[in-house]
Write a structure and sequence with these properties.
- The complex is a heterodimer of chains A (about 170) and B (about 260).
- The longest helix of chain A is centred in the middle third of the chain and has 23 residues.
- Chain A contains ten helices and no strands.
- In chain A, about 45% of the residues are buried.
- Chain A has a domain of about 80 residues: Rna Polymerase Sigma Factor, Chain: A, CATH 1.10.1740.10.
- Chain B is of the alpha+beta class.
- In chain B, helix 2 crosses helix 3.
- The longest helix of chain B is centred in the N-terminal third of the chain and has 20 residues.
- Chain B is elongated and about 90 Å long.
- The chains are: A mainly alpha (about 170), B alpha+beta (about 260).
Chain lengths: ~170, ~260
C-alpha cells in the first residue's frame, strides 16, 4: 500500500474509530477484548482497503468490526458463557462518574436487560439507539435486509421493555 | 389497521422508517386504540432509557497508538491472518517475558533489605516523583511530544535537558511507547518517557545517578497505590512509576534495561 493510500485510509476510515470502538464495547462487553477486536478489525480494514471504493466508510468499517466481534462471540459461547460485570463498566470512564452515581441502579438494570438480549438483537439495538444509524445503514453493517432489521429491532425493544417491567400494564 | 399489524410496525413507526402511508395508518390506529397506544409508550420509554443511559465511547489513547503504530509499519499492509484473540491476548514473546519476570522476582526477594534502607534515604525524591506521576495522569499533562517512535522521542530531549535517557522500543512485549515530556522535579528538569500497557500509564524518569546511592539492586516502593521501581544504568538513575501491578512493572523494567 502506497503512502497515498495510507493517507486516504487515515482520512476516510480512521475518523470512525470511536464508532468502531463503541460498537465493539457494547457487543463484547469488555474493554480489553474490545480494544483487541478493533485493532484486529482495523488491520483487516487496511488489507481490504483496496476493495473499498466509495460510499459509506463508517458502515464499511462497522461491518468489519461487527463481523470480528460476532465471530469472537460465537467462539466464546462455544467455550464458556461470558459474564458481564456491570461494576467494571461503571468504572470505565471517569467523565461519566457523576451521572453514573445518580443513575447507578437504573443503569445496572438496563445493563442486565441489554446483556440478556441475544447478540443479534443487541447489535441492532446498539446500532440504532446508541449509534443512531438508519435502518439502511444497519442493514449494511449487519448484512441482512432492512425488513429483518425492522423486525429484530421491534422484538429487541419489546424484550427490553418487558425486562425493565415497562409493559406491566399490558401483561395484567 | 388491526392491532397485530400495528404491533409489528410500531417500532419502525417510532423511528420514522415506514412508508408515508404506513406511517399515517399507524398514527390513525394509535389515536383510536388504547392498547396499542400504551404499547407504544412502553417501547418508547425503553428506547429512551437506553439512549439516555448508554453513551458512545471514545477510543482509548492506547488503542489509537496501537493503530497508528500498525499504520506506520509497512508490513501492516501485508500482515498474515491475525492470530486468534485468545492467543494474542498473551503477547507474542510471553514465554521469554515470563522467564525474565521470574528472574526479577527471585532477585527482588533477595534484596529487600537493601531496598528498605534506600527507599528511606530517597523518600523525598520518591514523593516528588509520585506527585509528578499523579499530575501526569490529569488530562493533557501526560506528554509534550506524542510519538510511538523511539527515534522521534529520544532526539526530542536533546537541547531540552542535559541528559539523554534510554528510549527502548518494547512494542512487541505489549509495552507501547506513547511519548515523552519534561517535568521539574527536586530542583531540576527531568526527562520522562511514557509507555502504556493496556489502560495503564508507565512513566519512566531519568536523573543523573547519585554516587551515594550507587547500587546494583533495584529499589521498590509503593505510594498511593502506585508501584515505583528505581534502578541505575549508564550513569543514570531511572524510576519507573505506574499503577500497573508490580509483577508487570518488574517485567517492564527488566525489558527496559535490556533495551
Amino acid at each position: 500500500m502506497s503512502q497515498r493510500d495510507v493517507d486516504r485510509f487515515e482520512r476516510v476510515v480512521l475518523p470512525h474509530l470511536d464508532d468502531a470502538y463503541t460498537l465493539a464495547r457494547y457487543l463484547v462487553r469488555d474493554e480489553h477484548d474490545a480494544q483487541d477486536l478493533v485493532q484486529d478489525a482495523v488491520l483487516r480494514a487496511i488489507r481490504y482497503f483496496d476493495g473499498y471504493r466509495e460510499g459509506d466508510a463508517r458502515a464499511w468499517l462497522l461491518a468489519i468490526v461487527r463481523n470480528c466481534c460476532m465471530t469472537w462471540l460465537r467462539r466464546q459461547s462455544s467455550t464458556k458463557k461470558v459474564s458481564f460485570d456491570a461494576g467494571t463498566l461503571a468504572l470505565a470512564d471517569p467523565r461519566e462518574t457523576d451521572a453514573r452515581a445518580i443513575q447507578g441502579s437504573e443503569r445496572a438494570a438496563l445493563t442486565r436487560a441489554l446483556d440478556a438480549l441475544p447478540d443479534e438483537f443487541r447489535e441492532v439495538i446498539v446500532l440504532r439507539e446508541i449509534q443512531e444509524l438508519s435502518y439502511k445503514e444497519i442493514s449494511d453493517v449487519v448484512g441482512v435486509p432492512v425488513g429483518t432489521v425492522m423486525s429484530r429491532l421491534a422484538r429487541g425493544r419489546k424484550r427490553l421493555a418487558s425486562a425493565l417491567g415497562l409493559d406491566a400494564k399490558e401483561a395484567s | 389497521m388491526r392491532c397485530a399489524e400495528c404491533t409489528e410496525l410500531l417500532s419502525a413507526y417510532m423511528d420514522d422508517e415506514l412508508m408515508r402511508d404506513e406511517q399515517q395508518a399507524v398514527r390513525e390506529h394509535l389515536a383510536t386504540c388504547a392498547d396499542c397506544a400504551s404499547e407504544e409508550k412502553s417501547l418508547a420509554l425503553a428506547s429512551r432509557r437506553i439512549k439516555e443511559n448508554f453513551m458512545r465511547h471514545s477510543t482509548p489513547d492506547v488503542l489509537k497508538a496501537r493503530i497508528r503504530n500498525a499504520l506506520a509499519q509497512d508490513d501492516a499492509f501485508t500482515v498474515t491472518e491475525p492470530t486468534s484473540i485468545a492467543s494474542r491476548r498473551v503477547w507474542p514473546r510471553w514465554p521469554a517475558l515470563a522467564a525474565a519476570g521470574l528472574v526479577v522476582a527471585v532477585a527482588s526477594s533477595t534484596i529487600t533489605a537493601t531496598l528498605v534502607q534506600r527507599s528511606v534515604a530517597g523518600s523525598t525524591l520518591a514523593g516528588a516523583i509520585a506527585d509528578s506521576h499523579i499530575r501526569s495522569l490529569m488530562p493533557g499533562h501526560l506528554t509534550d511530544v506524542v510519538s510511538t517512535n523511539q527515534h522521534q522521542v529520544k532526539p526530542w530531549f536533546n537541547g531540552r535537558v542535559d541528559l539523554s535517557p534510554a528510549v527502548p522500543n518494547l512494542d512487541s512485549a505489549g509495552f507501547l511507547l506513547t511519548g515523552g515530556r519534561i517535568d521539574y522535579i527536586d530542583g531540576r528538569a527531568v526527562p520522562v518517557v511514557t509507555y502504556a500497557r493496556r489502560q495503564h500509564v508507565i512513566n519512566v524518569y531519568a536523573r543523573p545517578a547519585d554516587a551515594r546511592s550507587n547500587s546494583a539492586a533495584d529499589a521498590h516502593e509503593s505510594r498511593n497505590g502506585f508501584h515505583m521501581i528505581e534502578w541505575q544504568s549508564g550513569g543514570l538513575d531511572y524510576w519507573a512509576v505506574s499503577d500497573l501491578n508490580s509483577a508487570e512493572l518488574e517485567q517492564f523494567v527488566a525489558l527496559f534495561k535490556r533495551g
